[in-house]
Amino acid sequence: MNKLTRILLIDDEEDFCFFVKGNLEASGLFKVLAVNSGAEGLESARRTLPDLILLDMVMPDMSGDEVALELTQDSVLKEIPVIFLTAIVTREDTGNKNFSRIGGRYFVAKPIDTEGLIKAIQYVLHHKSDQGVC
Amino acid sequence: MDNRKYNIFYIRLTVILVIAYMLFFQPEQIRYQFWGYLYVAAYLLTNIIIFRLPQAYYLKPAFYYSLVFFDTGMIALGIFLSNQSDMFFYLIYFFIIGIAAMSMNLIYMMLNISVFIIVYGWILYNEGKFSGDLASLYALRLPFIFAVSLMFGYIINRIFKDIQKNIQERDDKYFALVESINSPVYLVDEAGLYLSVNDTLADELQTSKDAIRGCFFNDFHSPEESAVFMKHVKQIFMSGASRMFESYNPQLDKWTLRTMSPLIDRDTQKVQAVSVVSKDTTDRVKAEQELRQAYEQLQQTQEQLIQKNKMEALGRLSAGIAHQIRNPLEIILMGSEFLEKQLKGSNDLVQMGLQKIKSAVNRADTIIEDFLKFSKTTEFQLSSLDICPFLEETIEMVEYKARKRNMKVDLDCSESWLQVQADKSTLQQVFINLMNNGLDAMSDGETLTLRVFQSSTLPRTEAEQGVSAHSQEEFVVVQVIDRGEGIPKEKISQIFEPFYTSKGAVKGTGLGLSIAVMIIERHGGKIEVKSKEGYGSVFSVFLRQAE
After folding, report:
1. DSSP 8-state class, residue A85
2. Contact A91/B at CB under 8 A
């Protein structure tokens, strides 16, 4: 059995996390840990060292930006690729693709279907070495 | 005035008839019968001659004095010939009254009476009245005539002088009033001849008052202004009513307001002349025009500002709403996918229901997508764009949709060299939107037309002939012409409002046109629409021409 890709999902919407976790895990490719705040997310990231982090942009305690900044300041955590989930970018911004890369960061526009999200995750993992260049 | 002539004629005729009666009632008493007939004939002849004299004589006081002087002599002669001076003494009172009536000049009148007294004295003496019992009685008649004449003459003379003084005073007041007005005031007759003018007019025309009298209105004014002025003068002569009009002299760049009133003859009640008070209103009219322009501009700016504020508010709002709605939408989408997986193998109805939920989420997301487009301030990259190739390229993007409904998009691009200043991708968005709207409005198999030309070839409407600098700028106009159902008149003003849609919720969000307007306005252009229900619509996009 292949080793499952471990994903840390940081999003303040519990229900969203519930379904994303369910959908991603149903594909049989991922193991998802979902937390509902930025602080919890950082703590979990340090503890579990996931393969990829899905990070919500807008959260009550810390914004996705702030979480990402802390991640990049940690010599270990900065290697973990991050995909931002946001409702603010338009499909046009992402070039009508499932995700886009703006300023060295990957963005996925909400709402996204599971298939699109999986493709984005696989793409980012595949191009892991590009992360953090800019 | 006409009556004077007849009055004099009939009065004299009466006098002649009375004397003729005196002469021929008791012919046996007459001393010189032949002279009597000759006298009456001569007197009648003079009356006819006087009647035949031109009107002008009757206006001269000297004529009346001469007439009184002559008639006094004639009547005295008649009494002498009738040999009845005694009996017809009372007739003398008529002379006295007649003469007194002419007593504007008292000395002249008394001279006249003196001559009469001498003649009368001679007649009495000739008849031997100064001898006998009644001699003193006859002699007293002479000073009596003198005294009575003097008394009546003096009274009437005084009354005349008072009346004259009053008239003079009134004239002086009016004269002072007219001269004190710092605006030209004048009287003109039906032909526009100046009858009377004030100093202000003389100053304005840089000539003397006497020089102006005898000139016509059109001697000092342009033919156009004169024509308008004379039209009003004629109207006043016809109607007798005052009127007011403002006219413009393009040569002098001057506005004048004229208040015109009829001068009505008291006797005939006819309009004699027209009095005019004219006022230079150039400053006021110009100020009014400027004010109106400023007001219109302000109104326009205000409308634009309101529209802009609305858009900005909507932009801010939509970013917020997008985020707030997209999160729950995401949950619904993920949830339905989750259920899909969990319920795999359940009945088709459940799967169908889940598909419907997903497509509803996608629809909602399309609306949010539009919202966000609307709120985004994308960087503009203005560059010179060949409009015709650009449109050909853009038409290709909707051609698939058109072909599906067997429709065509025609491009009329005779002036293929035209270039505009534009950001290509946003401008494309605008035309795709306009063409989609046009195609949606028409039935299957019809043709949508795009036409390109310069704004200078467009016939200007009256509103556009105004002073707005905007309308004088050269634009490239692209018209999107559909033969669809058209837009109802009352809806025209709404179509550019956000959220207005005629397509129903499934097909459109109602943001397309408001986004198009926003984009074109940012290009420094505008979108105009003309539409007729049942005939179709023309959307004209005005774009700045590339230099």
Report:
1. E
2. yes
